[in-house]
Amino acid sequence: MKKLFLSLLIATTALTASADEGMWLPNQIAQRVKDMRAKGFKLSAKDIYNEQGASLKDAIVLFGTGCTGEMVSPDGLLLTNHHCGYGAIQKHSSIDHDYLTNGFWAMNRSEELPNPGLTVTFLERMEDVTERINAGESIAEIREKASEGGKYSIRIEPMYYGNQYMMYVSKVYKDVRLVGAPPSSIGKFGGDTDNWMWPRHTGDFSIFRVYADANGEPAEYSEDNVPLRPKKYFAISTQGAAEGDFTFVYGFPGTTQEYLISDAVEYTLNRANPAKIHLRTLRLNVIREASEADPKVRIQYAAKQAGIANAWKKWQGESLGLARLGTIAKKQNYEAEFQKWAANREEYAHLLDSMRAAYARNEEDFFRREFTAESIFAIELVKMARWCGANSGAVNDARKAYIEAFFKDFVPAIDRKTAKLLIAEYIKSIKALPAGWKDEINARGGVDNYVDYLYDNTSLLTREGMTAALTDKTTLEADPIYKLYERFSGREYSSQGSIISRLPDIARWYKPYMKALREWDSKRAFYPDANLTLRVAYGKVTGYHYADGVYHRPYTTIDGIIEKDNPEIYDYNIPQSLRDAYATKNYGRWACDINGRNTVPVAFLAANHTTGGNSGSPILNAKGELLGLNFDRTWLSTMSDIEYDPEVCRNISVDIRYVLFVIDKIGGASYLFDEMNIK
Ligand code: ARG
After folding, report:
1. Is the dihedral of CA 567, 572, 573, 574 positive or negative?
2. Is the dihedral of CA 654, 659, 661, 667 positive or negative?
3. For 549-610, what is the HEC assignment?
4. Are strands 597-599 and 601-606 parallel, antiparallel or unpaired?
5. Is the dihedral of CA 359, 360, 362, 366 positive or negative?
């Protein structure tokens, strides 16, 4: 008995939500506020979320479909990360107007650049609709009622795998203009070399402005639109935060899976991650070679490259972290303890067995789909063929714009080479190939010749050909690339997302499993996994032990940028204006004293539980003032989507003083400060 108790204790404490783990629902933050205040928070739950009046949540937006942004002026000025605005900046860039390299600064409102397709979403209110759903009301019905005839956009999201449902009532603004972005050598300083790493010196911010119609309502882009007057915007603190100070991050974390069973972690660690990492390595090598040979190609492939490399590197860190923590074994122990409790409860006794069987039954098919998504559907022309099939019809303005955008940044030779590598890999790794495919490849004389045949004979390589394929089904269906796509269009190959545990056949077991865990492990502080809904995380500014004998301090400064500066290395080649500002100590009011040195703080660490989607999120002090923008996690944190380790997990933010310094001294856009509340 004593032994059992002890092992139970070990199993649960190891996985118990500790101080800084957790992403909490804003309308339920009252349950956390006592803990937050004990750690230094100075505001109330109502300051975070309040349906009766303006609160901090009204200053936060979902930026695009996967980042966070925040309002910093009464005239709709918005801050987010450089890497969140990157796609928009890149689309406005060419060799002649190279905003990626040189940065972009509107010097007045008429110079701001519109971005068709880019939206920002403000949360009006959220509501627990679990009881309505359990009482049989349909999701469609609930949505219909809440949307008030299309005025609001409605999302209903399961929490705890469907043990709870939350409805989100939002307004989506569609006129979002680019105001400023630093040169990539600041906004992406350190590039993929420093990505997911500390110490960090990236000025990862960009500036936009939200426009609305005369009534402050969402409207399509129009010259008549006016800057949105948000219900709330953040005050900016230039006081910084010291090690140990309370902070919180308020934003839209995308996906975490903290309650997975060990089988899922095994699949990720032993199967999915290694395969996906390898496929992306192949793609990145081709892009890197072509970019090094031609600066035009570097601009064209910059956004694609960054996207591919980001997850590629993260998966590598995640695999190392899961192995280091022994997550699989820990989960197995936890499950064994759970099973002892569940064994004599009819409702739960066979739950784990059912879950294991579900993984076993789905794994092979899921792996094939995931592999296909990372290979066949990673071929750009195959993606375009699929798009043509799905959008066939007259070439209207939207389709024309899509084709133009595609060709602006498409290099056929890169895609051809990538296709050869990915298809060869596919044939090596996947057993269940589409019927007849292998024969066709062999008949053409092997993979390389087959791919050459595809690219020599497709009509999709030109705008005219693409247009013809769109308007005429027979042309499309005769196209060899489209034929390749068709082989993979069936359910056996086309992906249902990249998360195995979300397959309905598996996910359905997590609902009772979560319910059971909350009964059994009742001391654990359960928070719902991230699902791109608004959350609050909180933690202190703090360093961490990186390795034996190596402590990472939680601050970096402009001095560190100069130490890394190297004109020979692309990722570390800073603009001359930054060197000059450093040489003359032209820091303005953005400097502070660090260890007796007069310097500009650049980035800082805190123990907030964050993930992808939290990019651009405000990191706030105890009074809710803006200290900086969250943009990354450290290398030892990358597994925190699956297991959070409070000892080492840290989020990385760019210090608002560095942001203001760059706007001022590099961008010469200090006129923007007039509309901000800088303290
Ligand atoms: N790792 C950060 C995030 O997940 C930043 C990514 C952008 N930077 C890059 N070098 N690709 O979004």
Report:
1. negative
2. positive
3. CEEECCEEEHHHHHHHCCCCCHHHCCCHHHHHHHHCCCCHHHCEEECCEEECEEEEEECCCC
4. unpaired
5. positive
194 contacts 200 by C-beta, under 8 angstroms: yes
Q: Ligand 1 centroid vs 323 CA: distance in angstroms?
A: 23
Of residues 20, 75, 82, 83, which has the active-site annotation? 83
Any alpha helices (H) in 396-551, and if so which ranges? 397-408, 412-429, 437-443, 447-457, 463-471, 473-478, 480-487, 504-520
Looking up tokens 């092979």 gives 364
Alpha-carbon separation of residue 42 from 93, 249, 544, 644 (angstroms) = 44, 15, 25, 26
* d(CA 194, ligand 1 centre) in Å: 9
81: its two tokens: 């990360």
pLDDT at 16 over 70: no
Closest CA to 98 of 300, 292, 294: 300
Token pair listed for 410 = 């498409």
pLDDT tens across 192-228, in order?
999 999 999 999 999 999 999 999 999 999 999 999 9
To the query of whether residue 204 is one of the catalytic residues in this protein, the response is: yes
* Cis peptide bond upstream of 618, omega within 30: no
Residue ranges around ligand 1 (CB below 6 Å): 83, 188, 191-192, 195-196, 306, 309-310, 612, 615, 631-632
Gap from CA of 45 to ligand 1 centroid (Å): 32
As a whole number of angstroms, the distance between CA 580 and CA 578 comes to 5
**What CA–CA distance (Å, rounded) separates 63 from 40?**
29
Residue nearest to atom 2 of ligand 1 (CA): 632
Give the three-class secondary structure for 419. Answer: helix
pTM over 0.85: yes
Which residue is it, tokens 């769109």? 470
Structure confidence by residue, pLDDT tens digits, 484-502: 999 999 999 987 788 999 9
**Residue 343 exposed, middle or buried by CB count within 10 Å (0-12, 13-18, 19+):** exposed
CA 423 to centroid of chain Cα atoms: 28
Backbone angles phi, psi at 653, to 5 degrees: -125, 150
* Pair 208, 179: CB distance under 8 Å: yes
Structure tokens belonging to residue 158: 């399961």
Non-local (6+) Cβ contacts of 449 within 8 A are none
Least confident of 86-90, 115-119, 366-370, 527-531: 86-90
Residue whose CA is at the smallest distance from ligand 1 atom 11: 306
The angle at the Cα of 484, spanning 481 to 490, to the nearest 5 degrees, equals 135
Q: What's 236's DSSP letter?
A: B
Nearest CA to ligand 1 atom 6: 310
77-80 and 113-114 beta bridge pairing: unpaired
Please provide the distance, in angstroms rounded to a whole number, between the alpha carbons at the two ends of the chain: 59
Strand (E) or helix (H) holding 5: helix 2-15
182 token code pair: 């630093």
